[in-house]
Amino acid sequence: MEKVAFVGLGAMGYPMAGHLARRFPTLVWNRTWEKAKRHQEEFGSLAVPLEGVAEAQVLFTCLPTTKEVAALAEALWPHLRPGTYWVDATSGDPGESRLLAERLLEKGVVYLDAPVSGGTLGAQRGTLTVMMGGPEEAVERVRPYLAYAGKVVHVGPVGAGHAVKAINNALLAVNLWAAGEGLVALVRQGVSAEKALEVINASSGRSNATENLIPDRVLTRAFPKTFALGLLVKDLGIAMGVLDGEKAPSPLLRLTREVYEMAKRELGPEADHVEALKLLERWGGTEIR
Ligand code: NDP
């Protein structure tokens, strides 16, 4: 059976690579080596030195930004083999990825952008949505290997997956922040956030923020660290690039990026994205409960 490899065993990559290892011979590499060893013990993958991942027919990456992916390509350059498919699950930059795809073609490596949504829970459950950019035949060639996916959509040429992902996350940011503003006002008025959400979630104002994120993470005061605020702000920057590139009207998304930039400055990039609502709570002088 063909070998696959996974680089970047972070909050997303670790469980995603776990799904691969259950079905295919899977090589793993991670900058912090202990995580690769732990993955090998937990899932039966094989932790290898960096150049070892070039042996795989399908190479997966899930790194913070396209910069780390491009740096990895340079580090692997002498070892890359023609006919390899590179499936990049990073939420990356469309333009930088198009350049990377061209560069990799010099080695006969086919790059596909394949960012994911569904969070760490979706990664653990193997139900992620994958949005793919690249040539049709390459997408079909790697489709059987996407063991962590619940849904796979081929959205266009290289870069299109990243563009869709950035806009999706901009919508996540809008919905979360807007729900936070509304709930702070209602709580100040004496309505419990729980009751308000009971109504909203049976009404037209509902979103993933009101149905899942706020009940599970804010009302409980748990604020688990699953998706760093710094990464969401990165996605909002990519979304602005998509909008500006198309000269598309974007007053609300521009403002949204500004408030999350502010939250990042106040709370630090390592805070979870849902913690952005703590800023609203501070300004409003009340917790969302
Ligand atoms: P994490 O910070 O948890 O993991 C990042 C991974 O990248 C780690 O394996 C880290 O290695 C590795 N890494 C970081 N810098 C370098 C480098 N310079 N060279 C080599 N490896 C490096 O991030 P996530 O897993 O949360 O996110 C990964 C990608 O997935 C991002 O693009 C993010 O936007 C996206 N994403 C995240 C979601 C989430 O809910 N968390 C949901 C959907 C998409 P080390 O272990 O050594 O730090």
Write up this protein.
By secondary structure, this protein is of the alpha/beta class. The protein contains twelve helices and nine strands. The chain folds into two domains: 4-157, NAD(P)-binding Rossmann-like Domain (Rossmann fold, 3-Layer(aba) Sandwich), CATH 3.40.50.720; 163-284, N-(1-d-carboxylethyl)-l-norvaline Dehydrogenase, domain 2 (Orthogonal Bundle). The strands form two sheets. Strands 3-2-1-4-5-6 form a six-stranded parallel beta sheet. Strands 7-8-9 form a three-stranded mixed beta sheet. Helix 3 links the parallel strand 4 and strand 5. The protein is globular. The chain starts with a strand and ends in a 5-residue tail after the last helix. Bound molecules: NADPH dihydro-nicotinamide-adenine-dinucleotide phosphate. NADPH dihydro-nicotinamide-adenine-dinucleotide phosphate binds at residues 8-13, 30-32, 35, 62-64, 68, 90-91, 116-117, 119-120, 226-227, 231.
CATH-defined superfamily of the largest domain: NAD(P)-binding Rossmann-like Domain
Give, in order, the helices and strands: EHEHEEHEHEEHEHEHHHHHH
Give the structural class: alpha/beta
Gyration radius over CA: 20 Å
Shape: globular
C-alpha end-to-end distance: 52 Å
Number of helices: 12
- Uncertain runs with pLDDT below 50, 5 residues or more? none
Number of domains: 2
Question: How many strands, what sense, and barrel or not for the largest sheet?
Answer: 6 strands, parallel
Helix content: 40-55%
Oligomer: single chain
Strand order of the main beta sheet, please?
Answer: 3-2-1-4-5-6
The bound ligands are:
NADPH dihydro-nicotinamide-adenine-dinucleotide phosphate
Q: What is the CATH third-level topology name of the largest domain?
A: Rossmann fold
The CATH class of the largest domain is Alpha Beta
The beta-strand count equals 9
Mean pLDDT over the full residue set: 98
